[in-house]
Amino acid sequence: MKIYVVSGLGADFKVLEKIEFPKHHEVVFIEWLIPHQNEEFSDYVKRMAEKIDDSEPFYLVGYSFGGIMVQEINRLKPAKKVVILGSIKSDKEKSRLIKAGQITKIPKVLPVTFFNERTTNMYSVVRKFFDPRNPKVLQYFRVRDPYYLKWSIEKISDWKFEENPDVVQILADRDIVFPIKNSKPDYVIKGGSHLFPITKFKEVASILKGVLG
């Protein structure tokens, strides 16, 4: 069976490359697309979902923003199981920072030029979506298109979703992006930050082996 995987905001497969997925399944990484100008989130989700063959059963796994994405994809193409890593099940679990962005509309007001290479390197835009204490964080941050970054942060801020109890949620107890106090995860990674798929990959692999079989 195929496991379709979507990584975090601006990240590629390298964030998850240390995780040993169940060997009898085929892992397919879905890369982020650059959104069209003023593209609706629902239309973007449809484009991402085009890469999934739903003629046979499959699993969905998403990390961070990818966790939000796979839950949206699941509405169009239902998976046998959905697992989210370092992500949230509903808008009720958003952090204060993300809720502030939704209320103030700051992500919408900021110009695309604000999301440039220099800003990215200074962490001033994306550091809350990673672990600022990890000196190697930028090696996982590959998709740096300014419009993609601005658009994505807007969509995370505005995201509204009713919790699906069947979604399996894995959170770290030291995550500053999606604080565990706002959620009731199925599995907790002790001592992990938002980058726990890198630092605690053995624990993650063990959980996935049990959940995905």
Automatic annotation (TrEMBL):
It comes from the Bacteria. GO terms for molecular function: hydrolase activity. Keywords: Hydrolase. This is Alpha/beta hydrolase. It comes from Chryseobacterium gambrini.
